[in-house]
């Protein structure tokens, strides 16, 4: 076990603490991949040799320091690779690290549903279950040619490898500062899709306002849906062109939400993150002659000036979409 997947138990709207917590992890290794809004992948191969401690022992030290310095507990999964560490995190709980050793991988994954595998979405899981391939053990035992006929050549090969415990992923160091995020927690676990959409509208408007204030545009969006059982689903999408336009961000956020196909899901919070930030003056745009779009952009400019003069509450959430 050399990889940790850490999820910090941040309070609502507490994502601002993530860079500090990532700094804590950097005391052990520079190989850290931020997983906003509240997590990270950590490669401890060098740290194990340097500190003379196992991955699980280092995980315990990380948890104690996060509690002592920031008052934040965390859940930690450990495994031979990033995929297995992510899967182990689902079985972890505060105070106890779920660790999967290299010789226990098959035993750990074979009874799990196919949806537990990172990268397997709702549609793929549904297709596999229709053919009786509802667990990773059954997927691992299925002929490769069968999987490739069901979901495609490349996806079938990757699924077959992952179901057999082959984890080719690696931790890719990144910078959390190259993104912006906003979270919309619900006061109670929310079933109403209309309330989900209103929360996404508010989040997209907030991101657009912040991007424009910084003279930035984003090249992608990531949506994280947190459920009542503390599990989460994350989806990302690359934008057709970089933008800070709230209406464009809202459309993409709605598309990602609809693609999840949530039915009676009890949602605890929604987090929307703008990825791949860049200077607005360096971005290229496709010309549009849509008078409605131009009108909305002019309204945005007026709203931004009102916020700058009178504060963030000068414009009611959702007003720009009216």
Features:
322 residues, alpha+beta, 5-stranded mixed beta sheet, 5-stranded antiparallel beta sheet, 12 helices, 10 strands, 42% helix, 21% strand
Description of the structure:
This protein has 322 residues and is of the alpha+beta class. It has twelve helices and ten strands. A five-stranded mixed beta sheet has the order 2-3-1-4-5. Strands 6, 7, 8, 9 and 10 form a five-stranded antiparallel beta sheet that branches. Strand 2 (32-35) and strand 3 (39-43) form a beta hairpin. Helix 8 packs across helix 9 and helix 10 (193-213) packs antiparallel against helix 11. The protein is globular and about 60 Å long. The N and C termini lie far apart (52 Å).
Query: Could you spell the SSE succession in H and E letters?
Result: EHEEHHEHEHHHHHEHEEHEEH
Rounded to the nearest angstrom, the distance between the terminal CA atoms is 52 Å
Described by the principal axes of the CA atoms, the overall outline is globular
Strand order of the largest sheet: 2-3-1-4-5
Portion of residues within helices: 40-55%
SS strand fraction: 15-25%
Number of distinct beta strands: 10
Note the main sheet: 5 strands, mixed
Question: DSSP helix count?
Answer: 12
Low-confidence stretches: none
Class by alpha and beta content: alpha+beta
Please tell me how large the radius of gyration is: 21 Å
Mean of all residue-level pLDDT scores: 85
Quaternary: single chain
């Amino acid at each position: 076990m050399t990889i940790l997947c850490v999820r910090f138990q941040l309070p609502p709207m507490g994502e601002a603490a993530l860079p500090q917590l990532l700094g804590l992890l950097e005391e052990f290794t520079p190989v850290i991949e931020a997983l906003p809004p509240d997590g990270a992948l950590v490669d401890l191969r060098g740290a194990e040799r340097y500190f003379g401690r196992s991955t699980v022992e280092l995980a315990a030290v990380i948890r104690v320091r996060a509690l002592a310095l920031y008052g934040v507990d965390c859940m930690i999964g450990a495994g031979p690779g990033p995929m297995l560490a992510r899967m182990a995190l689902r079985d972890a709980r505060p105070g106890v690290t779920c660790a999967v050793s290299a010789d226990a991988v098959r035993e750990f994954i074979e009874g799990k549903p196919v949806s537990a595998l990172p990268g397997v979405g709702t549609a793929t899981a549904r297709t596999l279950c229709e053919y009786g391939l509802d667990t990773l053990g059954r997927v691992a035992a299925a002929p490769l040619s069968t999987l490739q006929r069901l979901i495609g050549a490349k996806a079938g090969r990757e699924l077959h490898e992952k179901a057999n415990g082959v984890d080719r992923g690696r931790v890719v160091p990144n910078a959390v500062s190259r993104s912006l995020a906003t979270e919309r927690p619900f006061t109670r676990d929310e079933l109403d899709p209309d309330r989900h959409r209103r929360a996404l509208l508010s989040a997209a408007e907030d991101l657009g306002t912040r991007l424009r204030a910084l003279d930035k545009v984003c090249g992608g969006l990531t949506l994280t849906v947190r459920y009542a059982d503390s599990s989460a689903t994350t989806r990302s999408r690359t934008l057709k062109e970089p933008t800070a336009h709230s209406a464009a961000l809202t459309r993409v956020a709605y598309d990602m939400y609809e693609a999840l196909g949530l039915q009676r899901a009890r949602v605890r919070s929604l987090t929307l993150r703008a990825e791949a930030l860049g200077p607005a003056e360096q971005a290229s745009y496709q010309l549009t002659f849509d008078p409605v779009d131009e009108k909305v952009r002019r309204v945005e400019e007026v709203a931004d000036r009102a916020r700058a003069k009178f504060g963030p509450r000068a414009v009611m959430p959702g007003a720009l979409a009216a």
